[in-house]
């Protein structure tokens, strides 16, 4: 098992990344990819480094970066996968760039029409996988069907849950609701071998009654990011409340440990990251603000995907679908 | 000033509605619309009632209801507007049905291509109007431009803020980001007289740096509903934490009043409701779970729209746009 980790990706790279890898039980399987001059003196002995002289910034245009920065940490990490020198790639940098390099550099899995970005949301009970959260800006019904298949398989492999429940995000729950895309995808999913439970509305995603929620990338991306900000606004609000009076400060002090743990669970950067499903490689993309713990979880997720041979399962499943 | 209020709409109708109207400073301007047999003995003397024998349930198909239930409270409320017997209609029932009756029964304002549903989100600073949150399932760039114009005017009229800042919800903030629809709408909005600030991503909606966020109905609906559920999940989580230990209970007791006030502000059903912009009438649609306070706010919003003559302003603005 070999996992490349982008040492240069993330708001506090490379320090947080190095700290994460150092403390990981999988550290011996990790290859750090990054600018050696920036890593020198920071990386503990024994950790493997592959040099990448260029860096892709958070604001850079993904496909342009793909064309021009082959020697970036993302470029080299992708190349290592292509040459089978590593089995997976983990990073907390420019999401679009990881997706561009994986999709254009590694290519799609056989019969997969569109890769999709999937991430777990913390629900009332357990976790719900939502996809696509931003790999695609416009899709066809058949793409949504494939997202359902890939998401279902991913949940099965990662959580061990058999035959996960799959829902389609829609405005209104009846099958006649939603736009043309959703209505057509509904039909395809109902007729497929997916354990399809029908439409779900935005306010039921977090109920924890389904395992996989399928949606368009623009919608998934909007709710993911909007949800993050709602959590932040509330956390900030609660923090302000605690500072309003002596009485409130005392109350806050008594509740602090449990509130902290709760908001950590609600914070979307604690789950390791999003997985790009459908390319000829395994790419886990963590939040730019990821903690070392989040990066370690991402490395674990990557390892699990390799062990479970997720990509050949996806190819087989999609092949079945097309028969 | 006359405002029709749907006595039968909402989870706890008619009681909550009657309580709301009774306590409203605008009660003398209100006409309650509903089934007299169900209102008998509950409505205080002096409140005007218009009988509507039929009821449209929360799960009913909107356009079907429009065809078959003209004598419903929604049908009669719309008819009262059409005959100019009332100036506005407020309700907490089936959102789709209010929209169908308003759009099909009252028709669109001159030059308005598509009505849009708009609602205020509680931001870090002040409030941000988001539209469309569910009136349309597929739109053209020109529709989004008109949403921007209507939303901008609404904010101007309701809050008094001049030349409100308008943003376009997109994946990625550069103008080259987003799908074809967003990119084309970006161009139209930039070239218009709107105070357009560019693209905004989902996690910046609540920052409070813009006044109006324009998006497709399916996306707006998803983030509105998802956001509501995030607030609920956190509120429930905090409630659970407070019950875990004696220490936490004490802390919770000290913080209870301020937490309660805070979550009330964050709760989307406290703002009166969403407004349907672009039809030949004024329709305010409140959340099914609305409190009496929310309904009273909705009645106030309706009154404000009438006073400010919002519809003729919209027609004039859209006409300017088309020149």
Describe this structure in words.
Chain A is an alpha/beta fold and 323 residues long. Chain A is built from eleven helices and eleven strands. The first copy, chain A, has helices at residues 15-22, 36-39, 62-68, 73-82, 95-106, 141-159, 180-191, 217-242, 246-266, 292-307, 310-322, and strands spanning 3-6, 30-34, 48-51, 88-91, 116-122, 127-131, 165-169, 195-200, 212-214, 274-277, 283-285. Chain A has an eleven-stranded mixed sheet with strand order 3-2-1-4-11-10-5-6-9-7-8, with helices on both faces. At the A-B interface, helix 8 and helix 9 of A face helix 8 and helix 9 of B.
Radius of gyration of chain A: 20 Å
Order of helices and strands of chain A: EHEHEHHEHEEHEHEEHHEEHH
Instruction: Report the biggest beta sheet of chain A as strand number plus sense, adding barrel if it closes.
Output: 11 strands, mixed
Global mean pLDDT of chain A: 92
Question: How helical, in percent, are the residues of chain A?
Answer: 40-55%
Largest interface: A-B, 60 and 60 residues
Adjacency order of strands in the biggest sheet of chain A: 3-2-1-4-11-10-5-6-9-7-8
- Strand percent estimate of chain A: 15-25%
How does the helix and strand content of chain A classify structurally? alpha/beta
Number of strands of chain A: 11
Low-confidence stretches of chain A: none
- Basic shape of chain A: globular
Q: Give me the oligomer status.
A: homodimer
Distance between the termini of chain A: 33 Å
- Work out the helix count of chain A: 11
